[in-house]
Design a protein that fits this description.
Largest sheet: 7 strands, mixed
Structural class: alpha/beta
Order of helices and strands: HHEHEHEEHEHHHEHHE
Strand content: 15-25%
Helix content: 25-40%
Radius of gyration: 18 Å
Number of strands: 7
Shape: globular
Mean pLDDT: 95
């Protein structure tokens, strides 16, 4: 039976992950919104850890700003791209590792810890808990943790209106409409309140929960979808303004949970 790492590595070995945040409007919006939130809490003096760094789109951009960045990525093919793309940048270090085990790092090491990929692929409750605990552990007191997760409703809206709704409903919900999490899902989604409740016993004070790409992924599939670069710039600023509205969070695919570690 395939392990979680084998399933994830097999998937990312077949796609262009490095271009995910640049080749579509929803990817561009995700990047723009996410970076805006990171910049609220990080500056040139910050030490940042990104767990699940992928090919390094965020880590490399932040390092180019002069920030001290450490990147951890599980998938070898992604890590190799990250290392290649970050050659010559002195203030970034990259390692292969799992979000559930950050033992190479001491307690209270980073000002900001980003976990932008692991929660999409963690299904076992114990592993989810370990990933949260490890990210919090390595963050300095009063430091910031930012976790990205997927809205189960965003997954449904973006992927299951092509004559396959029943497949998506069976994969993501039980017969009594509870959200399902299991390894073969590949990507697992959460109800927003469900994800926030994962922190109820953690030494973290919730700052905000924000959407980063809205419903644009499903809209972008329409044949009449069109938005110019100038319009997109205005749209991105408009979306950022309303990205923390609770009534809009269920329509977005990617969501950020932002908290501050208690001193």
């Amino acid at each position: 039976m395939s392990t979680r790492k084998e399933i994830i590595s097999g998937f990312y070995g077949q796609i262009d992950e490095d271009g995910r945040l640049t080749r579509t409007r929803h990817g561009q919006l995700e990047y723009y919104t996410t970076m805006n939130f990171v910049h609220r809490y990080a500056n040139a003096q910050s030490k940042i850890l990104e767990v699940g760094a992928g090919t390094g789109r965020y880590s490399i951009a932040l390092a180019k700003e002069g920030i001290d960045v450490t990147a951890v990525e599980l998938v070898d093919s992604n890590l190799q791209v990250l290392k290649k793309n970050s050659q010559g940048i002195k203030n970034i270090r990259s390692y292969q590792g799992d979000a559930t085990d950050l033992s190479r790092f001491a307690d209270d090491s980073f000002d900001v810890t980003l976990s932008f990929g692991p929660m999409y692929h963690l299904y076992d409750a114990d592993e989810v808990d370990r990933a949260l605990n490890e990210a919090i552990r390595v963050t300095k007191p009063s430091g910031i943790v930012i976790f990205a997760f997927l809205s189960v409703f965003g997954i449904m809206y973006a992927n299951y209106f092509s004559g396959n709704w029943a497949v998506g409903q069976k994969e993501n919900f039980t017969d009594d409409y509870r959200v399902k999490h299991f390894k073969e899902q590949l990507f697992t989604g959460y109800d927003v309140s469900e994800f926030e409740q994962l922190f109820r016993d953690k030494p973290v004070d919730h700052i905000t929960t924000a959407g980063v790409d809205g419903p644009i992924e499903s809209i972008e599939q329409r044949s009449d979808f069109a938005i110019t670069d100038e319009e997109f710039e205005d749209f991105a600023k408009w979306y950022l303004t309303f990205s923390e509205k609770r009534e809009l969070l269920g329509t977005t695919n990617h969501i950020l949970y932002i908290g501050r570690k208690r001193a």
